[in-house]
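Sample log: MFS transporter.
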Amino acid sequence: MLVRDRAFFASLFLTVLADQILLFLVPLVVFRITGDVAWSGLAFFFETLPRYLTFPVAGILCDRMSPVLLLRLSRVFRAVACLTGIAGQIAFGGVWWLIALSAVAGVLTTQGLLALEMVLVRAFADQRFEKVVSYSQLASQMGVVLGPLVAAYLMAVWPWQAVVVVATVLFLLSDAAFNLWPGRSRLTEAGPGSKPRHPVADLVHALRLVWTLPGLSRAILQACGVNLIIGATLATAAAMMTGHFAQSEQVYAWLQVGGALATLGVLTLTAHVHLTLTVLGRTAYALIALGALLTGIAAHPLIYASGFLLIAGFDKMFNIYLRTLRKEIIPGEEFGKTTGVIICLNNLSQPLSGLVVALFAAGDDARSVLVCLGLVAILLGIATVRVR
């Protein structure tokens, strides 16, 4: 990678680091304030639902506006949302300001992710794309690994409001680093697209493709099963580790780091071991379901951690399966808007799992909910394999 592009990847790393600090902090602080895992589930529901509902809209905006502008706005407005959430919580108290901060930041992250994808494709068209993606994943994964550790150790000495201020500064620094990248000058305009069409017509056309193209609806149902598990795990992990298993916040942070390292290991395995697409998808799905059952029946934190690592690691293998399948099925000229709709449909089960946790979990123990959602995912997976 050229030296002039280092500012771009430094900006990506700082953005992911700030996002991971918020993702780690919000469920932990909500549980600390309320002492009830149901509130963590409710916070996860309100955080993730707007994030995934806005994917189709974000995709259309990326086709109509400069991705550089959208990427910068997503970072600056996340910093503004952080400061607004802190001010509201200090002035009025309660957990709703923190939940609102998380929801707004999630929507802006959605727009930033799609804009980043457009920037990668257009700005590095003269370079080998596999190499570009490798560098971007490396920068992102460094943020994923360090984010929970930074948040946990800062919260040990500072109030959570100060940690949110750190995230705010990181968002602003990421925007400053992006401004130092020379390549942004080549991306001031929206990219070429298909003939102008009303946004509603774009969405209707994308939904029609999802229904008619062979294999897409099956893949969406499988992704819904996986995301039921992912959502429930993310919504309850903080409460389970620091509450039910009585571990420190630092131990919970190391669990998150372990999940990121497991992801790196699985990605390395996937890159070097050739598996057919069907085997790849079924292997990942089965091990994620096994992880869900382990977290649900765990009587010891090590058993819970083993299930958590299976879920975190093989989620990325399943993502590779989905992305490869989409690339093979969806026509190139329809890829953007169709992918935005698919990502939205894939992930709607995540906020649903948070709502289930809020309704049925009690205190700091969510194991029965985790087992039930794991069984639902297993039945859904079996149904998609047997029914054609």
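Observation: The mean pLDDT is 82.
Observation: The chain has two domains: 1-176, 199-388.
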